Amino acid sequence: MDLLRDAGFEVREGGLDATPAELVALAPGCDAIVADPSVPVGPELLDAAGTGLRVVANFAVGYDNVDLAACRERGVAVTNTPGVLTNATAELALALTLAAARHVDEAAADLRTGRWRGWDPGAYLGLELSGATFGIVGLGRIGHRYAELVRPLAGELLYAARSPKPAAEDTLGVRQVDVGELLEHADVVSLHVPAAAETTHLIDAEELRSMRSHAVLVNTARGPLVASEALAQALHEGEIGAAGLDVYENEPDVPRALLEAPRCVLYPHIGSATRTARDGMATLAARNVIALLTGSEPVTRVA
Ligand code: NAP
Known about the structure:
By secondary structure, the chain is α/β, with parallel strands linked by helices.
């Protein structure tokens, strides 16, 4: 906001708790909308802003909250914040991988609530990651960084992607397989593809059944990739070993089935929550707005 004000723009703040109606009331006459991933940007908000609206600058790399077709129809540009949050999100995926594989949250909760009765050779037995096969779905910026981070642990690194990544195959030793083969063989499956019609419920009951019974599923990408009820059931029935989630289908709601599922580590969408990443996102969003409104090409345009 400081960058925008210093550039001479008036900033209207919606605030974190603004309702959709409040945002619509704030929009008339705006040249730019800066939205975070929890704000749906569709025809109503775009039309409320009016014909002067030039850009929707999303404060995230994922832009599934923005109706791209509606923006294109109205000649409104859309930008996102790639790259600056890659390390933060990949590191959180690593944290979820370790926490889920070793039942860290469950063990810590037992200690804090007085249920821990002392060292027990049979308690909290998790999956050892050294030598494990890691399967990465989507080897883009974050998937690639996650591969770099887990490489020292991995016995084998598999990836699924729409297009081959020969450079990563050379430097990281990753091997491309289809999603089905990846799910069947991986000890750890980490998701890094965007939310889109074709990735909705990429992991559903059938996919969960095909995974190894000790496998760990990690999702730091977007909630709709995983069918929540099917995941909860797979955990109850021991079809997979554990899950680590940062994102949910209807945030901020977290399905009760997941809250009650065993061996399920749940974080509140904190993938990009480092100071470095959030400063980078804020700066990039502001630079995109300023560029667009001063006649330059934005730094990171998606539409
Ligand atoms: P990226 O560099 O664009 O990587 C996404 C990868 O997924 C690409 O390699 C891409 O293409 C592949 N892909 C795209 N659409 C696909 C589809 N329909 N089916 C299969 N693969 C597809 O994006 P990124 O910067 O790594 O970010 C990935 C996602 O992480 C974002 O979209 C966002 O939703 C999520 N994210 C979450 C947080 C958080 O706070 N938890 C923070 C940042 C990002 P190819 O397969 O052709 O290579």
